[in-house]
Amino acid sequence: MADSEITGRGNWNSKLGFILAAAGSAVGLGNIWRFPTEAASNGGGAFLLIYLVCCFLIGYPVMMAEIGIGRRTGKNPVGAFKALSSNKLYPLIGMWGVLCGVMILSFYTVVAGWTVSYVFEEIFFAAGMTGWATWIADTSNGWLNALFAVAFMACTISIIRSGVSNGIEKATKTLMPLLFIVLFILIGYVITQPGSGEGLAVYLQPDFSEVTPGLVFAAMGQAFFSLSLGMGALITYGSYLSRKENVPQAAALVTFTDTLVAFLAGLLIIPAMYMAQAQGISIFDSAGDLIAGPALIFQVLPALFHDLGGVLGVVFGVTFFMLLSVAALTSTISLLEVPVSYAIDEFKIKRKDAALYIGLGILAISIVIAFNTGLIGTIDLIFSQVGLPLGGIMICLFLSYVWKTDKALDELELGNNNFRNSIVGKTWKVFIMFICPVVILYNLLSALGLF
Ligand code: TRP
Question: What is the pLDDT of residue 4?
Fold first, then answer.
């Protein structure tokens, strides 16, 4: 990382470094907190199906586009658009991305803080200190929310200050497999319990009558959020990538890993909700809809861990929320890295200063959210559900009609010989030029009731 110390820019250390970092950025609260919540409130199976289609047919092509733009220019999202065209308007695409990233990070930090507070909740509960457990887990306590958000942002800032971190690359390598193991064990436990079968059916049997414009809108927003697309996080990560790497393959691995973790999280949470119902816990609201929303995962899972009881309960509880915190951390660093790389490249600010001041600025917004958690839904709607797909359309159109697909294909062929003549390459071109922008736009307009 000496390189990053001198120039302020960095490179991935190892061949796998990029894939791990990009997968770390993708796998986060989006998979374990947001996906099951969205699936639960959008009819389960139908949502899952449309989500998978969005990830592989829309998300994957856009991911290749972002990484390609980043690697070609070696720049942050704003600088990348500047480098590829002399028209002053296009960098606005990157600025919109930076703004979305800043706003997403501001609420993400608060939710990530909750995952840390639940590590303590599990420990207090196991120690018999139930009063403390209930106190620390109160997500309506603004001061506590703010405290944990400050702690979480401090970790994020310190990692970004030390450059494109080797430490986090290593940590991801050991922690990701651990996350898979814990998920598998928990799923194994849940699906053998009474009541969970109903949840499995809701999750795995699509009811096509549930497919509405609203559902498709939610699934697409979720796909962009979960894959970290639409705001230039992968332009930034791509800018640190070596020309030797195979972009289509790396993007496929990242998409697959991320989707798998989301699928597994749904397999855990939705049956667990029905299992809770079998134990007499109400999981429907007065309107007869499944209880969903930011707090869902923080209600269902602790109930499950407490139900497990004993050493097993506390080990699972603590490990699960610790891993969730780590998954969140590898995502917050990618969100902070975007405005930081912008400040470093465009304003020649030192990495350490940029990380500190931008991080603190975003933290100020987080603190406002900590005291008004109702804002999360609105910010999420504007900057992730609408903002990211909108960014995605602009990236597709820019690549196709300003930069041109042929030049993008030249870039993608570095590390993947003759990609343009492969089936994936030919399909990619059609998707990025026509299908992705049209489908995303149609989806946004129909959700707004304009179509
Ligand atoms: N993908 C992350 C998650 O699923 C969140 C995230 C990290 C993100 N970086 C991003 C979302 C960039 C949008 C854009 O939790």
Answer: 42
Q: What share of the chain is helix, strand, coil (3-state, %, to 5)?
A: 80, 0, 20
| Rounded-to-integer distance, Cα 275 and Cα 295, Å | 18
Task: State the fold for domain 15-447.
Answer: Hydantoin permease (1.10.4160)
Q: Please give the distance of CA 341 from its chain centroid, rounded to a whole number.
A: 19
Check residue 171 and give its pLDDT.
Answer: 64
Could you read off the pLDDT of 271-313 as tens digits, one per residue? 988 887 887 777 777 777 776 666 677 887 888 788 877 888 8
For ligand 1, is residue 394 a contact (CB within 6 Å)?
no
Residue 31 Cβ < 6 Å to ligand 1: yes
**Is ligand 1 within 6 A of the CB of residue 156?**
no
Report whether 280 contacts 100 (CB < 8 A): no
Centre of ligand 1 to C-alpha 367, Å, is 20
Is the C-beta atom of 366 inside 6 A of ligand 1? no
Give the residue, by CA position, lying nearest to ligand 1 atom 6: 228
Average pLDDT over the chain, rounded to an integer:
89
The region of weakest confidence among 114-123, 214-223, 297-306, 435-444 is 297-306
245: amino acid identity, one letter = E
What whole-number distance in Å separates Cα of residue 250 and Cα of residue 415?
Answer: 10
Residue reference for tokens 């917004």: 365
Taking CA atoms only, the protein residue closest to ligand 1 atom 8 is 228
Confidence (pLDDT) at 163: 66
